[in-house]
Amino acid sequence: MFNTLCVIGVGLIGGSVARTARVQNLAARIVGFGRDQDLANLQLAKQLGVIDEFYLDIAAAVAHADCVVIATPVATTAAVLGLLKPHWSAETVYTDVGSTKGSVLAAAEAVFGYVPDNLVPAHPIAGGEQSGVSAAVEGLFAHKRLIITPVAGTDAGALAKVQAFWQGLGSVVSLMDAQHHDSVLAATSHLPHVLAFALVDMLGHKDEQSEIFKYAAGGFKDFTRIASSDPTMWAAICTANKQEILPLIEQLRTELAKIHALLAADDYAQLFATFAYAQTARERFLEQFERPV
Amino acid sequence: MFNTLCVIGVGLIGGSVARTARVQNLAARIVGFGRDQDLANLQLAKQLGVIDEFYLDIAAAVAHADCVVIATPVATTAAVLGLLKPHWSAETVYTDVGSTKGSVLAAAEAVFGYVPDNLVPAHPIAGGEQSGVSAAVEGLFAHKRLIITPVAGTDAGALAKVQAFWQGLGSVVSLMDAQHHDSVLAATSHLPHVLAFALVDMLGHKDEQSEIFKYAAGGFKDFTRIASSDPTMWAAICTANKQEILPLIEQLRTELAKIHALLAADDYAQLFATFAYAQTARERFLEQFERPV
């Protein structure tokens, strides 16, 4: 599909893009780019065969690349676009993997004054709480949804190439506008992460005073898995999408106040109805999760 | 260990007690008791070999039993103790599996006027979101914690027998008072369940308005697993332990207000510090979860 694929940021996601692109034969050559402090990770990526070569110099990294994947944390998108700008090529397609898409469009506008027509923002709904190239796996995107958020000026040819690339990686691709993406993901991903961090922050302090974690069970383990996610990445995602997340936090506080009131009033019937509705709603989610297409 | 083990309520937990007791040779004969509406489940339990016989009549069920395990939802404990009272035997030991222990002591006091010295309340910290005997498995309690909450008058011999029984089922047994148990479990189990139900109740209504669940990922799946738990059981647990749960819901609302304020004020440093503290605290939990003894 491509002669040279350049991955900016060879971590869990970027590394998995590279590994899968290799196996699926989507690029003849795969190179990585990182900063000086990423040297050890890039050396490991090359040693593991995830990439063929790496560069700490952006000009060398993107030379001859016909596809560039920006796979760095969302807070760095503007800086990365700033680095790419002097070398931006109309012959190349650009995509990213950021968890917030309004922020990517804003970064492009800040750097270029507009969104380049060959920048096709994307968000693979896949990942894990681990980070770094050692966590990267082939097949991470298989049967997982990926959302592309084109703008009015997006070039149809670039869109088609980027869509085909992500489908080649195994993704089930949907298109929607960036604002809708950010609203949906705030609910299904960002709010749950905030909640998991909030709960474990609160209980962690209790655990320091008197041991409680030793009596926590498997349900607690699953419920708090996402609180093991990278705090740098998540503080950045929350900041980038705060307009959507803030009202959801307020709605959840209202929901908790509702349950508090039901429980305080011994309104068993309504408490049961709330829990039963949630149980049914989760089954609806599970059915869709297990049959994503 | 016992000649006849009687399990009151042959569901996920009661059935797993029976299956494991059989494999571990803890009882020569295992019988089950249920209500008329439990007939199909009891027939299935017998058919699966989980129990040797079942009874819908309490007198027949507990005749010759030297150990009775009450494995019905916490809301039914007083009713079950009321059934057992006319047949209560000083030669028998009694234990239960309720997720709240203050409520079990209160039920005993309501029925007997005191806590019988051979009733040894217990709570196996194990389970799952499934229910019924078909979900019961041998080994459910292996390497899982179990908390026994004796009272001042608990008979030492009964306590020793019940403790040995649960250890024989594979549990790692701790002793603590019922109030402390209820406080710890409110934090590590009841509050997370309330939170999962609250989140999925809120998002389920959003999903009805515009599809959001189809874009939810594996993190959401794990985070909401406990929202698939039995709403009857959980509405009862919350009611039984509301004195502990209500203040925790308030504390969590305060915690969410704190994160809301940090995000609204773009206080990245404190937001990061909160998330990073939570990440570290979860690692502390995981280490203990993986090495429970």
From TrEMBL, chains A, B:
One of its GO terms (biological process) is tyrosine biosynthetic process. The keyword NAD applies. The gene is tyrA. SUPFAM superfamilies: 6-phosphogluconate dehydrogenase C-terminal domain-like, NAD(P)-binding Rossmann-fold domains. Residues 3-293 form the Prephenate/arogenate dehydrogenase domain. This is prephenate dehydrogenase. InterPro entries: 6-PGluconate_DH-like_C_sf, NAD(P)-bd_dom_sf, PDH_C, PDH_N, Preph/Arog_dehydrog, Prephen_DH. It holds the Pfam family PDH_C. It catalyses: prephenate + NAD(+) = 3-(4-hydroxyphenyl)pyruvate + CO2 + NADH.
